[in-house]
């Protein structure tokens, strides 16, 4: 166990008290410390809630790559455990786990984002083979992505966002790949961008300052697909037919206090949450109106005592929201020596 939810550091305590008062006055919730992470877990990112109640967490360690990338889990009794040290790319000698999802076969599927090392289609999808809670191996199941990012399993298929398809194009193309789980039992599937039959949705990003497109994704209870467009501060909604093809597409939510749209999480009762990395915030979006309400926002800092610090993903378990603070140096966010998972209590 690293540190549980009762562990609060004294560092920056006066700032926390000040923010608590501001949060109460404005209606914002104040994040608290879930886990203070050691340097060997320096950039927590993707999360998924598994059927057994564990939250699986990817840690690419992009802030200090002298530490190997890991998959961790947060158990139902709030312990933090290592699951696996991921094997590196055979050529690049790096691995960048970001999005993660759990499929009915019991295995974990992980987006290996290699764009920070090589942007020449070296990113992949990995399968971490699990047996009674233990990782027993890791396979490559998809190759040829540029910037593999979020992942989600839905009704027999894996959905993976590709945040960049062609970095030289403007507006920047990005999209979502869809793979039937049954396709991934043999040699790795290789994808090729625009025109690839697995690319089931495409979007375009106008923002040249932050040129990243498709990011977080999830499904609502009606089977509609929601995808973040990071740079343009949007969430898009796609209606799919029975074969998983797009039959309708719309901008579901845009701007409204969002400075970016990174991780996306939809609960079973259709509460939609977005991690806003650039805005150092978490937002909730009404599923009927698309109205954006800011749930929590922290000043830019080091995230001491559990404040937000470059939030990239959210995950809800019961009445608690867990927020991974990837804390990469990008925009106003600067990587520092404080690494944490924040918790937001969703009920008073």
Account of the protein in words:
It is a single chain. With 348 residues, this protein is mainly β. Helix content is 4%, strand content 44%. It has one helix spanning 13-26; strands at 32-37, 47-49, 55-59, 70-74, 80-85, 97-102, 108-112, 123-131, 134-145, 148-154, 157-162, 172-180, 189-190, 199-205, 214-219, 225-229, 234-240, 246-254, 264-266, 272-276, 281-285, 292-297, 311-317, 320-325, 339-345. The longest helix has 14 residues, at 13-26. It is globular and about 50 Å long. The model is unreliable at 1-25 (pLDDT under 50).
Summarize the structure.
The protein has 348 residues and is mainly beta. Helix content is 4%, strand content 44%. It is built from 1 helix and 25 strands.
The secondary-structure class comes to mainly beta
What's the overall average pLDDT, rounded? 92
Low-confidence sequence ranges? 1-25
Rg calc: 19 Å
CATH-assigned fold name = Neuraminidase
Number of DSSP helical runs: 1
Give the terminus-to-terminus CA distance: 27 Å
Q: Output the CATH homologous superfamily.
A: TolB, C-terminal domain
Number of domains as seen in the coordinates: 1
Spatial arrangement of strands, main beta sheet: 6-7-8-9-13
Count of DSSP E strands?
A: 25
CATH architecture: 6 Propeller
Shape: globular
Q: Into which percent range does the helicity of residues fall?
A: under 10%
């Amino acid at each position: 166990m690293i540190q549980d939810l009762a562990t609060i550091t004294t560092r920056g305590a006066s700032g926390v008290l000040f923010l608590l008062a501001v949060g109460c006055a404005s209606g914002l919730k104040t994040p608290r410390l879930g886990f203070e992470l050691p340097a060997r877990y320096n950039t927590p990112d993707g999360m998924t809630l598994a059927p057994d109640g564990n939250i699986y967490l990817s840690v690419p360690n992009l802030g200090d790559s002298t530490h190997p990338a890991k998959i961790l889990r947060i158990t139902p009794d709030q312990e933090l455990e290592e699951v696996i040290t991921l094997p590196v790319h055979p050529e690049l000698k790096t691995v960048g786990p970001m999005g993660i999802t759990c499929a009915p076969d019991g295995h974990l599927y992980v987006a290996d984002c290699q764009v920070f090392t090589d942007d020449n289609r070296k990113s992949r999808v990995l399968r971490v083979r699990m047996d009674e809670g233990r990782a027993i191996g890791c396979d490559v199941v998809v190759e040829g992505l540029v910037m593999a990012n979020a992942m989600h399993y839905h009704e027999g298929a894996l959905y993976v966002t590709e945040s960049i398809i062609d970095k030289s194009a403007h507006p920047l193309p990005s999209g979502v790949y869809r793979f039937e789980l049954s396709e991934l039992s043999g040699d790795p599937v290789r994808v090729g961008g625009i025109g690839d039959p697995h690319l089931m949705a495409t979007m375009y990003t106008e923002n040249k300052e932050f040129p990243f497109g498709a990011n977080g994704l999830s499904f609502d209870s009606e089977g509609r697909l929601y995808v973040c467009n990071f740079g343009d501060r949007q969430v898009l909604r796609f209606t799919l037919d029975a074969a998983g093809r797009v039959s309708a597409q719309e901008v579901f939510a845009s701007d409204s206090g969002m400075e970016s749209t990174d991780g996306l999480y939809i609960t079973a009762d259709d509460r939609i949450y977005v991690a806003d990395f650039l805005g150092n915030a978490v937002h909730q979006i009404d599923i009927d109106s698309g109205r954006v309400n800011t749930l929590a926002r922290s000043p830019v800092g080091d995230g001491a005592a559990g404040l937000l610090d470059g939030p990239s993903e959210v995950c809800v378990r019961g009445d608690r929201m867990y927020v991974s603070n990837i804390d990469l140096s990008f925009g106003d966010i600067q990587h520092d020596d404080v690494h944490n998972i924040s918790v937001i209590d969703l009920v008073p």
